[in-house]
Fold this protein.
Amino acid sequence: MNATAEGKKMQDLPPKGGYGPIQTERMKLRTILGAKSTIAFFLTTTVAGVYAYYLGFKKVRREQIEMRSARLAIWPALLAERDRAILKQMRRNRDAEAELMKNVENWEVGTYYGEPIFFLDDANQYREPLYFEHFAHADPEVVAERTGRHLFT
């Protein structure tokens, strides 16, 4: 219902001449790219992507080789430093044992009342110390912290 200026009520009606026809047939959409240009675009981007991947792969591979070479080059130095640290700690352990047992009669450092603890083939042969032998005279808190770090990292 529509109100006019005079206040009379007026019914809504269709426009003069009627409504337009209802569209029932299919409307063709406007195409941005055709089939050939879509395939060409796909192939171009694929080739460009493969080439970019190849370049990135070469760079990553080169860096991997460089890191492996650096790791192999420094490995002997790291082993030597580790061995040096172990020998220094074993020397400290030996000195601590000598200081601790200096008042015990017939005590010889590195033996148990004169009897060797380890039977080696050669007197100069080296035996890798066990983990807790290495920390024999260390603070228990330090040993616990190192053990946790060793087990969980």
The chain has one domain: 34-152.
